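Sample intake sheet
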Amino acid sequence: MLMIMKTSVTTGFVSALSSRRCSWLLALVLFSFPVLCAAQTCDMGDDIDAATRTAVQQTAQRYFQMASRSDSASLQQNAIASLAADFSGIQYSLSQNKDNLAGATATPQGTYLLSETTAPANGRAEFFCGIYNSPDRVSFVIPNLTPGKYAVVVENVSGGKQPMQLTFVLQQDASGAWKLGGIYPRSKEIAGHDQDWYIAQARQYKAKGNNFDAWYYYVVAWDMAAPVDFMFNVAKDKVADEMQAVRPPDLPSPDKPLTVTGNGKTFQFVQMFPVEYEKGLYLVMKYRVPQLGSNAQMFADNTDAMKAMVAKYPQLREAFAGLVARALDPSGQDYGTPLAMNNIK
């Protein structure tokens, strides 16, 4: 199973966050903290009244105990209606992280209380927590959020196979009870390395002038700087500022594809992003095709696409354990092929 950035994202109150979309991620790299809108408010830490803070932390701890036992039935019974109606994402997430959760303990790392009084005009709720320019400020950017009161509890999990963070999103119902709105597990390591390692490697690639390698290693570090995709903090800001100096001018996007040729074929790459696969860091590369062919044909095309990319950017051999080429047709269907770097010749 190919796990993007080793994060299994499940959604109840949030949609379209079950996989990384690099174009979306890179747009958020430039995120800044604007003026707080009165429709959305956020309290954090000791700014939350003691009774509420205790209630949400105890609820998160109760849900953690269910998760550590892989008790998805109890979690589903305590979920908001939209999540309970489709709980397959949570069940998959628990199965993928069973060894990390079994027998583990959790301690709160951060607690946030979010209030949305009206539906945002642009469909995206933005919450700004803490004092502007303070080192502990945090923000949340959440699409398709319905008005209500929410809590986000980030927990450090230890004692399982690997240390990790587990984030619970809770929504308060009419009775005042805190229902489960989402569970977001995230490992503290990607392909065996922590965020500091990726930053150090990115700087080394930058010093060599290998900006493609540096950029995507910064992307990994940026992603690891917060426990969930929709949370932004000072650590992310710092990585975002540093990585702009190595931003390659030929980064692919749907509006500006990267054209690469090889073996008599032309490939238009529209998206690239790093993933963890087979315990190594791979680079996923999506390119457009008018239609998908047979499996044999798509495998051959994907292989040629990877060879062409490495021929154009040989620096990729140093930074990535392999590549994943994904042919993407106009309907959004794709066909993917992963290859270890030593098999791309």
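Comment: The CA atoms of residues 6 and 276 lie 6 Å apart. The chain has two domains: 4-187, 258-343.
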